[in-house]
């Protein structure tokens, strides 16, 4: 089944509560996907700095003394904030690619979850409420967040198989459903220079969107194009640095409910994910139409 | 009047309480508070109860209902009144996918919109939707009546059997073997009767158009293979 939640804040006064609200929403979706969970949080930016979120199967070993060799390799100061099995590496904005390369060659045990100016992605195997609490989701702040509770169908229950998938700077995608042409699409995307970390169908969808955006399409256009090229069942929720999008396939079997107020736009696989949001009783609540792109930016 | 607050009472307790009510019960008025999108609220009721659910519910509200009159004061998730046998279910807000699916009797009234697959495989239920209905509605509908004040989405009545579909607004497209049919006096009477029972006024039976099966696909004929 999988459960998706998303919260895109329009009124900045709600930003300090982003993590708390997302955490409550995620908890309601445990039954839809109890094997693993993950979330992307678009937090505050630091001028001139970018973030790379890392995961390690052995964080004590891998994170201790990581900053010195990376600093040396890229010729600039870096810092690391550890959160459980994840660490958020702060690097100068222009040095993201160099830092990723230094990590890839010098620290192959580390997995890169995301990189960008504001995005941080945390994901692990386990019951979703436990995953959320080990990363202190409820204390996080920011402009928008997307969470996912996974019931694995297309690939193994592993940390890397959990959602969200991030295949471009500040981009992420979560998915409820299954794609039927992901093998062919993967081959085409690899031919065009995209790379993959897992056998997961959702990673192909994420990479497809990133690939389209690299061609100059905005997120809305990239999502529209995906209706022509992706085959299967899907409800997607995607995030960009300042945007939030939703798309369902033309059959639209996979559930989706949205709510909008002056303060936020929210997404849930079920209404109960939205039931605790402030002002929900007066919100506009609707079910997104099939094959229709919904997209907000700020 | 029993009031059950789902903030403090479990869903299982609620449904057990409702299932204990027999045909002659004195506790006929029920109020359910704080459903907050929970699934399977008031499912399997088999007594002439009046149940008011004060807020939005999740999947399968009032499923398999028999005899009860259930009103949802909010919206409902997928499968509202699925496989209803008799009684009446009113949803004041919108309903999600496959509302009234496989319903064998009774009346489902949706005062908002219904999304896709409304009345899929309906088998005798009457469904009235004040707003619009989504794609693939009344797919394989067998008997019963679907009355829609607004518009219908793609592939209305695909592979329909003998159910009757009445739509006042536009129909985006008709599914396989579904055709528009003449609105005769008996159909005007039928719609009038359903409208009166639904409590929704302000429309005239003659404003509706009737759709049903052209019965080409009842028996397999190789010449019709493309139509399936």
From TrEMBL, chain A:
Give the SUPFAM superfamilies listed for this entry: N-terminal nucleophile aminohydrolases (Ntn hydrolases)
Superkingdom of origin organism: Bacteria
Pfam families, per database record: GATase_6
Q: Return the InterPro entries for the record.
A: GATase_2_dom, Ntn_hydrolases_N
Q: What GO MF annotations does this protein's record show?
A: transferase activity
- Glutamine amidotransferase type-2 domain: residues covered: 2-298
Transferase keyword on record:
yes
Protein keywords = Glutamine amidotransferase, Transferase
Recorded protein name is Glutamine amidotransferase
Natural source organism: Hyphomicrobium album
From TrEMBL, chain B:
InterPro entries, alphabetically? Glu_synth_asu_C_sf, Glu_synth_lsu_3
Cross-referenced Gene3D superfamilies: Glutamate synthase, alpha subunit, C-terminal domain (2.160.20.60)
Any one Gene Ontology MF annotation carried by this entry is:
oxidoreductase activity
Could you tell me which SUPFAM superfamilies the record lists for this protein?
Alpha subunit of glutamate synthase, C-terminal domain (SSF69336)
Query: Where does the record locate the signal sequence feature?
Result: none
User: Which protein is depicted?
Assistant: Protein GlxC
Q: Which organism is it from?
A: Hyphomicrobium album
């Amino acid at each position: 089944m999988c459960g998706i939640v998303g919260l895109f804040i329009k009124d900045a006064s709600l930003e300090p509560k982003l993590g708390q609200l997302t955490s409550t929403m995620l908890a309601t979706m445990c039954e839809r996907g109890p094997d693993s969970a993950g979330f992307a949080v678009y937090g505050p930016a630091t001028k001139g700095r970018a973030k790379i979120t890392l995961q390690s199967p052995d964080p004590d070993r891998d994170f201790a003394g990581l900053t010195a060799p990376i600093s040396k390799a890229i010729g600039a100061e870096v810092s690391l904030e550890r959160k459980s099995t994840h660490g958020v590496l702060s690097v100068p904005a222009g040095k993201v690619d160099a830092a990723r390369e230094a990590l890839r060659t010098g620290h192959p045990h580390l997995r890169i979850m995301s990189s960008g100016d504001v995005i941080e992605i945390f994901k692990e195997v386990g019951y979703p409420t436990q995953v959320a609490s080990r990363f202190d989701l409820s204390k996080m702040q920011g402009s928008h967040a997307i969470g996912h509770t996974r019931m694995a169908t297309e690939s193994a229950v592993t940390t890397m198989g959990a959602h969200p998938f991030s295949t471009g700077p500040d981009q992420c995608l979560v998915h409820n459903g299954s794609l039927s042409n992901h093998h062919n699409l993967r081959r085409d995307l690899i031919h065009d220079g995209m790379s993959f970390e897992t056998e997961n169908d959702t990673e192909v969808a994420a990479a497809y969107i990133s690939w389209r955006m690299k061609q100059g399409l905005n997120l809305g256009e990239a999502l529209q194009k995906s209706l022509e090229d992706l085959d299967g069942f899907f409800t997607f929720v995607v995030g960009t640095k300042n945007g939030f999008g939703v798309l369902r396939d033309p059959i639209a079997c996979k559930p989706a409910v949205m709510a909008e107020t002056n303060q936020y736009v929210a997404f849930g696989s079920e209404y109960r994910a939205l039931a605790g949001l402030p002002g929900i009783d007066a919100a506009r609540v609707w079910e997104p139409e099939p094959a229709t792109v919904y997209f907000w930016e700020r | 009047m029993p009031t059950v607050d789902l903030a403090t009472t479990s869903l299982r307790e609620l449904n057990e309480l409702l299932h204990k009510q027999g045909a002659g019960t004195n506790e006929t008025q029920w109020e359910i508070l704080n459903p907050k999108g929970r699934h399977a609220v008031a499912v399997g009721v088999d007594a002439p109860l009046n149940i008011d659910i004060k807020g939005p519910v999740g999947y399968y509200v009032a499923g398999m209902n028999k005899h009860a009159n259930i009103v949802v004061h909010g919206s409902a998730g997928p499968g509202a009144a699925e496989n209803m046998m008799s009684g009446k279910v009113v949803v004041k807000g919108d309903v999600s996918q496959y509302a009234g699916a496989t319903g064998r009797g009774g009346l489902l009234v949706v005062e908002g919109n219904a999304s896709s697959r409304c009345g899929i495989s309906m088998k005798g239920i009457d469904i009235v939707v004040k707003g619009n209905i989504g794609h693939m509605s009344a797919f394989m509908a067998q008997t019963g009546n679907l009355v829609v004040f607004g518009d219908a989405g793609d592939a209305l009545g695909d592979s329909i059997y003998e159910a009757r579909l009445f739509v006042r607004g536009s129909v985006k497209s008709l599914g396989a073997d579904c055709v528009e049919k003449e609105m005769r006096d008996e159909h005007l009477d039928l719609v009038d009767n359903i409208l009166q029972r639904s409590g929704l006024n302000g429309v005239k039976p003659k404003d509706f158009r009737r759709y049903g099966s052209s019965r080409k696909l009842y028996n397999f004929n190789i010449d019709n293979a493309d139509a399936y």
